[in-house]
Specification:
520 residues, TIM Barrel, nine-stranded mixed β-sheet, nine-stranded parallel β-sheet, disordered C terminus, binds pyridoxal-5'-phosphate
């Protein structure tokens, strides 16, 4: 047996308590099927509060907008709608997301419409008074025409910038491209033309600020972009425009793997396996982008940095605190001096620890005869739980059914295979180590799947049903659940004489065969 190379997940107390109630989770899967998504709406509110605490520490105003695309859930969006309207908003990137936000209790003024937009999306955003985060100069032109033609009020707009350069904004020689190219936003080199457009269309749009969203974890790159937005807005002000906000997008990150040492050990072992100095760690020697060229490891590992020393609110704090490269002052100070609001659009980080995906083990069999490894066949496929798709590597938690004690058996290396009849349908190409061999009927819990993993890629291949999603909350010593679509922050049991309960899960009257509540 190889030394087990674990990548054990970060499990905060609410999810820890949920995982400890195996009976509850098993009865949910028995009633509602596998795979099953479980969400904790209270946690999304707690995460929003942590981001707000960073705002307070830096004396900043502006909104935390949930990037809706990270999860389709109604419970999460409704729970956020119940938060302080001045503090929490939502970022929608499609007509349907906008409709969902409105139906979940967000008023138009709390909504930010991002991404490239079609006409219907632009019209509804303008109609309800959402802020339109403009993706291009062409979009500004289309929006302005729409506003005039339909006699709509002036629409608040931010302009999304991209292609940030080091010297362009302050007269240095030879602009150096510092952020990767993006197919979204207006390149900074077109900023002057954009300003002229904003002046031209001032009858239709009210220019409120600049935005960016960079798909990177590099704090330095983001600090430069933030600085350049501030400088751009300065220039706009000298031309008589009156912007007052910077929107720095999302990408604050999540620490999926709890222990730095496990992450380092595993990534080192991957390089060794690619070089052939240790047995493969992956299905058919997959290298996650690394390859062996004459005894040297080449390429870049396409992996999410699954252990993060700082992520989420901590990452925002770091970005705001360290001196920005050109002006030498912390971004928080720059924003304060300019009286700019700070808007952020966290997706993944706002739903950190907000959910898990459960899969039933269908079958366990030996893999290659000599390896000692096993294939664990799950009632789930790679579309139902797509962490691997984003290069996020983290172990599932084994929830044995029945009385198998935690200490039973010994560590084992397994490949997790999905329920599609495709050779490539693995939940992860990684050899996963579990503390003991699972049995048919056991559950595997994939922790922290609320960001992009639980429903972003889900499909109907082979007519497998989509996973059901439930919202859960701990109340009075036991777990309560309801279907995601039946969750509201206020429920019927508040109507009596009893004092109102805090926002939470109200079991729907027809929630089906309710698992026996556990605990007291
Ligand atoms: C996807 C996206 C986000 C959210 O990104 P995360 O990495 O999930 O925080 C925010 N803003 C825009 C414009 C996006 O496209």
């Amino acid at each position: 047996m190889d030394e087990p190379l674990y990548l054990r997940p970060t499990v905060d107390p609410p999810i820890g308590a949920l995982l400890a109630d195996r009976q509850f989770l098993c009865s949910l899967v028995d009633a509602l099927g596998s795979p099953l998504n479980v969400l904790l709406p209270e946690t999304v509110a707690e995460n929003a509060a942590r981001f707000r605490a960073v705002y307070r520490r830096h004396h900043l105003t502006g909104r935390v907008h949930f990037a809706h695309k990270a999860n389709r859930s109604s419970a999460l969006v409704r729970r956020l709608a119940a938060e302080d309207p001045a503090a929490v908003g939502i970022d929608v990137a499609s007509l349907e997301e906008l409709r969902h936000a409105l139906a979940s209790g967000f008023t138009g003024d709390r909504i930010m419409a991002t991404g490239p937009k079609d006409t219907a999306f632009l019209w509804l955003a303008a109609r309800v008074g959402a802020t339109v985060n403009l993706d291009s100069r062409g979009e500004l032109e289309r929006l302005s025409r729409l506003v005039r033609r339909h006699g709509l009020g002036r629409v608040a707009v931010l302009v999304r910038l991209s292609g940030f350069e080091s010297d362009a904004a302050h007269g240095g020689a030879g602009a150096r491209l510092l952020s990767r190219r993006s197919r979204f936003g207006t390149p900074v080199r077109d900023a002057h033309a954009l300003m002229a457009d904003l002046e031209r269309d001032a009858d239709a749009v009210e220019f409120v600020g600049a935005a960016y969203h960079l798909d990177t974890t590099a704090v330095e790159e983001k600090a430069r972009a933030l600085e350049q937005c501030v400088l751009f807005l300065d220039e706009c002000r000298t031309r008589g425009l009156t912007p007052r906000a910077v929107d720095i997008g999302g990408g604050f990150g999540v620490g999926y793997v709890a222990e730095a040492a496990e992450w380092e050990r595993w990534t080192t072992a991957l390089s060794e396996a690619v070089l052939g100095v240790r047995p493969p760690l992956t299905w058919r020697g997959h290298g996650y982008g690394l390859r062996n060229e004459g005894g040297t490891v080449r390429g870049a590992a396409a992996l999410y940095p699954a252990h993060r020393p700082t992520a989420g609110p901590g990452y925002l704090d770091e970005l705001l605190s360290r001196p920005a490269p050109a002006l030498g002052r912390p971004p928080a100070t720059l924003l304060l001096e300019h009286l700019h609001d700070l808007h952020i659009e966290p997706g993944r980080a706002l739903v950190d620890q907000c959910g898990l995906s459960l899969a039933r083990v269908l079958d366990v069999r030996p893999a290659d005869p000599d390896s000692g490894h096993h294939l664990v066949h799950l009632a789930m496929n790679a579309g139902d739980m797509s962490l691997e798709e984003h290069g996020v590597l983290v172990d599932p938690v084994l929830l044995p059914r029945g009385e198998a004690a935690a200490g039973d058996g010994e560590p084992v290396g397994v490949y997790l295979t999905g329920n599609l009849c495709l050779e490539g349908d693995l939940l992860t190409r990684r050899l996963v180590f579990l503390p003991r061999l699972p049995r048919a009927g056991d559950l595997l819990a994939f922790v922290n799947t609320a960001g992009y993993a639980m429903d972003f890629r889900a499909h109907h291949a082979q007519r497998h049903p989509l996973a059901r999603t439930v919202a859960v909350e701990r109340r009075g010593g036991s777990w309560h659940w309801c279907p995601d679509e039946d969750y509201w922050p206020a429920g019927p049991d508040e109507e009596g004489t009893a004092p109102p309960a805090p926002p939470g899960v109200r079991p729907a009257p027809d929630a089906g065969p309710l698992p026996a509540p556990s605990g007291t």
